[in-house]
Automatic annotation (TrEMBL):
Residue(s) carrying 4-aspartylphosphate: 55
Source species of the chain: Synergistes jonesii
GO BP terms, alphabetized: phosphorelay signal transduction system; regulation of DNA-templated transcription
Pfam families: GerE (PF00196), Response_reg (PF00072)
Keywords, ordered alphabetically: DNA-binding, Phosphoprotein, Transcription, Transcription regulation
Name of the protein described by the UniProt record: LuxR family transcriptional regulator
Keyword Transferase: no
Superkingdom as given in the UniProt entry: Bacteria
């Protein structure tokens, strides 16, 4: 049985090029094309494809939000992000939203086909520059000193909440809104966290929070 694919990109020429590349593969069937996020959602719900190839930056809605909708409606449908953006934060947000792959638009046709096959097989595909960025970032985080459990146990409930939000990438405004506390209170909790966790500056605290997330906070 052929694998059904929907392609979503607001650049028509690029979309047609992708269509041509994938249509040349006998096992693939292009069952839908969309040039906007809004129309894409309707096409995807109707076609119920095995895979959606999705641009991140579209004028009406970003691809990360579309990915969340797809995964909520059709959890078995794979999503391969196709973009020109090599930004760590965007990559992480796409993967957290449920994307099964992150492919750069400067990839050649062979890599595109390989990426589609890998994602359809149930594995995650990352373009080499993407995987290099993620692995190097992870290795840098491993170089940070890890506080012992006593230091973690010294955290108050509120400090644990603040650290968890920092690990999600929340800025001061977002933390204030989520926890209904003032900016000064957030700053105070950050200073206390830095002291208790042995972080010399805010950058170290953010790296620790992102690396650890909420893993150790409930132990």
């Amino acid at each position: 049985m052929k694998k059904k694919i929907v392609i979503v990109d607001d650049h028509r020429l690029f979309l047609e090029g992708m269509d041509g590349i994938l249509a040349s593969v006998e096992d693939f069937a292009i069952v839908g094309r969309a040039y906007s996020a809004e129309s894409a959602i309707g096409v995807i719900r109707m076609a119920r494809p095995h895979l959606v190839i999705l641009d991140i930056t579209m004028p009406d809605m970003n691809g990360i939000d579309v990915t969340k909708i797809i995964k909520l409606d059709l959890p078995d449908t794979k999503v391969l992000i196709l973009t020109m953006h090599l930004h760590r934060r965007m990559i992480i947000e796409a993967l957290k939203a449920g994307a099964d792959g992150y492919l750069l638009k400067d990839s050649d046709s062979k890599e595109v086909i390989d990426a589609v096959k890998i994602v359809l097989s149930g594995l995650i595909y990352l373009s080499p520059p993407v995987s290099t960025l993620i692995v190097r970032d992870y290795i840098r985080k491993l170089d940070m000193p890890i506080p012992d459990s006593a230091h973690l146990n010294d955290l108050s409930v509120r400090e644990r909440e603040v650290l968890s939000l920092i690990s999600e990438g929340a800025d001061t405004r977002m933390i204030c809104q989520r926890l209904c506390i003032s900016r000064n209170t957030v700053d105070s909790h950050r200073r206390s966290l830095m002291q208790k966790l042995g972080c010399e500056n805010l950058t170290d605290l953010m790296r620790f929070a992102i690396r650890e997330g909420a893993v150790n906070l409930d132990e």
